[in-house]
Amino acid sequence: MIESNDSVTDANRWQIGVFFKNYWLKLILCTALVCILFWGATRTRNYLHVSTNNKVDELSQQAENALAENKYTEALQLYRQILDYHPNYTQAYLQQAGIYVTKNKLTTAEETLLQALKQNTDQEAVYLALGEVALAANDYAAATNYLLFSDTTKPDNQLKLTEVYLRQGDIIEAQKWLSKVLENTGTGSKPHYYYAIIHLASEKSESALSEITLANEIAVENQNFTAQDIYRQLKVSIQNVETAESEIFGRALIGFTLLQEKYPRLALIPLQKVANEKPDYRDGQAMLGAAYLSIKDYESAEYALERALDLDPNYAYAHYLLGLIYEQKEQNDLAQQTYKAAVTFAPSQITYHRIYTNLLEECEKYIEAELAYRDILNSELFANTEKSEFKVRLAYLYLDHLDKLQEGLSLAQEYKNSELHAWALYKNEQSPEALAIVEQLIKEQPTAWLYYRQGKIMADLGQIREAKTSLDRAVDLDTEGKIPAIL
Fold first, then answer.
1. Are 252 and 203 in contact (CB under 8 A)?
2. Where are the alpha helices (DSSP H) in 103-187?
3. 88, 119 Cβ separation under 8 angstroms
4. pLDDT in tens, 314-331
């Protein structure tokens, strides 16, 4: 039976209505599902963000606690974990670099900060830190480049650039940045100190005296006691320049003062003039040599010092400086000879004895070191307080290197309950008593060497795990890198 057109039309209408009804229902359901998924993703992302921030905060607190206890290895591990969660966390990079600087690993500090620059970190803070690391390494060219990437409109950064240029001996650039600093108010005493240095290097001692006097007044007003000490000493030196008996001597004092203030490149200016104008002035040649030594121009330093010794072969200071050059060049036999000459010609100078005996021990010349220590202890030139330092060193020499246990024990008895006394007891197979002393000393003031001795004593007592913990702590605290060499 054939249906009518009207009935077909009604059926089609019904099907179309059902289709559109289902379509809109599906569309609404899909839209709702998308919204739910988006909402869920947003909540998850927010949750993860909050969770990550909480974890970073937790790790940061742990790292700060570790740093407060000088647990450098633990702190470094925690900062690395922080960067796993938050690769752009500037403070983690800065703190790691600070630890490496403390451990005298300046190259590693620089590499850490350069890595930070590749991330979306606080570039200003990182460049400033790079400048400080370069300054610590005496790499003034690198320090300049890094600092110029910082915000050079800030007075503090302008002051840093002033210092860097002065270290390089560039007075013109230093003055340029210093003038920018003084455009701001409340910049403190440091700009006036720098102006005093500039005027002194320019042989304008009267202006230098005015500036350092003003710097000291501001430091007194701000109760900056450290700065006051520095400024007062510099003021006395400038006053000595003012009252010098001759122009040559005054110029030499300027050079000496700039050397003391650690501006050797500026010191070269007056000292070269002194050497040219009065080549037979022994002290002038020696100070010139010291300035060249400070900038590691060993050839020029050697030449100036040899001229000083031509003028006076018994000049102990020149022998001492030559010894420093030879030691830097790892010519230790020559260094020992010149240090010994310095000790011979100036037997009352404790510094010369100290550096001479240090080198003897480093070169494992223990018999010569023992004789040198005995000469000091038998001398009437030194007070008992000065002799005490060398008596302790002699005792350790007996205990650690010369196999003279009884002599070491005898000296150690004078220092009851000390680190030396504990070590002597350990060497005498009295480890329990030694450990008790060391543990008490660690409670009072922990040091790398105390932890080292604790570890060695514990190992002797069979406390292997505890010994490893102590030795690891010793290495961690050792900023000179000496302990790993003897483990």
1. no
2. 106-117, 123-136, 140-148, 155-167, 171-181
3. yes
4. 999 999 999 999 999 999
Owning domain of residue 198: 153-243
**H or E element: which one contains 39?**
helix 5-68
Residue 95, SS3 per DSSP: helix
Phi-psi map region of 188: left, alpha, beta (phi>0 left; psi -120 to 50 alpha): left
pLDDT digits (tens, 9 = 90+) for 428-451: 999 999 999 999 999 999 999 999
Helix (H, G, I), strand (E, B) or coil at 484: helix
Instruction: Quote the crossing angle between the two packed helices 123-136 and 90-102, to the nearest 10°.
Output: 10
CB atoms inside a 10 Å sphere around CB 384? 8
Residue 212 lies in a domain: yes
DSSP class of 415: S
The predicted structure's pLDDT at residue 183: 86
Average pLDDT on 135-151 reads: 94
| pLDDT at 14 > cutoff 60 | no
pTM: 0.85
3-class DSSP assignment, residue 182: coil
Which residue type, as a one-letter code, is found at position 257?
T
Residue 175 belongs to domain with CATH number: 1.25.40.10
- Note whether residue 133 is domain-resident: yes
Same domain, 364 and 433: no
Sequence-separated (6 or more) residues with CB below 8 Å from residue 281:
248, 252, 274, 275
Q: Which tokens is 459 given? A: 């190992």
Contact 413, 421 (CB under 8 A): yes
Same domain, 390 and 425: no
